[in-house]
Design goal:
73 residues, alpha+beta, Hypothetical Cytosolic Protein, Chain: A
């Protein structure tokens, strides 16, 4: 699993340790299980309570691909 966290200062980034302080969302390692659609981005923003621009949303997908391609949930 990949964790994305909104830190107390409002920044959003990957949490490789899974233990950073802040509001976190876990995403499946297998990119094929994730549908990168408007619904997904709205859900991610709602859970983190922050707006994410399209470039950062694409960066999230790229980092998940690099981190763990073809793993199962």
């Amino acid at each position: 699993m990949n964790r994305i966290v909104r830190f107390p200062d409002g920044t959003v980034d990957f949490d490789p340790t899974g233990r950073s302080d802040g509001r976190g969302v876990y995403l499946c390692d297998n990119i094929q299980h994730m549908r990168w659609s408007e619904n997904f981005s709205v859900s991610l923003e709602r859970e983190l309570k922050v707006a994410l621009d399209n470039d950062y949303q694409k960066e999230i997908i790229d980092r998940i691909r690099m981190n763990s391609e073809d793993r199962e949930c």
